[in-house]
Design a protein that fits this description.
Helices cover 34% and strands 35% of the residues. The chain has helices at 36-53, 67-73, and strands at 2-11, 18-26, 57-63. β1 and β2 (18-26) form a beta hairpin. The protein has one domain (2-73). The protein has a three-stranded antiparallel β-sheet, covered by helices on one side. The chain is elongated. The longest helix has 18 residues, at 36-53. By secondary structure, the chain is an alpha+beta fold.
């Protein structure tokens, strides 16, 4: 089951320039990211992967909103 993690990231050299990044991920063992523990754990894992590919950025926070809430905002 694919779910999304939303990373709020800011540029290291311009800390006021921020954006949201949407990552699709499969939760481990079929556990829903709507469970806070799973969101925290998977967010750390996926955030680390993202930051390795985008070294000029830092992660402010992340969240795991329900899919229907993300689709409503697009």
């Amino acid at each position: 089951m694919l779910e999304q993690i939303v990373l709020s990231v800011c540029l290291l050299l311009a800390p006021t320039q921020c954006k949201d990044v949407y990552l699709q991920t499969a939760s481990e063992f079929g556990a829903s990211l709507q469970v806070p523990f799973h969101c925290v754990r998977q967010g750390q894992i996926e955030g680390q992967k993202w930051i390795e590919q985008h070294p000029g950025w830092r992660i402010e926070r992340w969240k795991c909103p329900p899919a229907e809430r993300i689709e409503a905002n697009l």
